[in-house]
Amino acid sequence: TGDTKITMTGGKVKRIYGGGSSGSSLTGDTYITVSGGEVSYDIYGGGDSANVTGKTDITVSGGTVGHEIYGGGGNNSSVASSTVTIGGNAQVGGSSLSGPLYGIVINGGTNVAVKNGVAQFVIGQNFTGSVNVKLPKGFDVISNPVIATGAAEGDAAKIALSGAADGLEAYFDSSAQANKVRKPPTPTSWS
Q1: Cα–chain-centroid distance for residue 72?
Q2: Which of 129, 6, 151 is CA-nearest to residue 64?
């Protein structure tokens, strides 16, 4: 019972969980702040096979996250709500010869819908880093295209899409101050 607060300013860890493990549920909120160092795999706002009854709040303003960021928990763990904020010179996700891998996990999709990611994330002030965003299979680019709020002109260029992102691109919508996902416009051919 009570809130958990984890702060990482340097060093290297494999994973970070805000909540408990193996059925040890947390009654309270979780706060994870990473301003430096390396998380070689994942960050989970929630627990590992353990629920969090409150909200989860993850802020990455520096350092590197090699794989994924989940607002929720691992292994079917639930949380009440989750927020992920990326800013500063944070680097999230990896890459391979075939393109970007991993990233902030977005909820939604078809068939087996993703529920332990986030609906969207927040871009913090002075974002100079890069972030991969992992879209679920069947992500709805028509009725819910927003992946990041708090965005500024130029932030879409710092986002690489991964997961089920074939044929999609991130773009900045100035009227909503948000980064969204769409199918790129078809080029006009001139004969």
Answers
A1: 10
A2: 129
Other Cβ atoms less than 10 A from the Cβ of 50: the count is 20
- Strand pairing report for 130-135 and 103-105: parallel
| CB contact burial 98-137 (16+ within 10 A = b; e otherwise) | eebbbbbbbbbbeeeebebbbbbbebeeebebbbbbbbbe
Which token pair is 125? 């002030």
**Residue 3: burial class (beta carbons within 10 Å; 0-12, 13-18, 19+):** middle
| Token pair of 11 as six digits | 């060093």
Q: Give every CB contact of residue 191 below 8 A, 6+ residues apart in sequence.
A: none
Rounded Cα distance between 92 and 104, Å, is: 7
Q: Which residues contact 66 (CB under 8 A, 6 or more apart)?
A: 38, 39, 40, 41, 93, 94, 102
End-to-end Cα, the chain, rounded Å: 69
Pull the structure tokens for residue 68.
């994924």
* 11-34 tens-digit pLDDT: 999 999 999 998 899 999 999 999
Please state, for a pLDDT cut of 70, what percent of the chain lies above it: 97
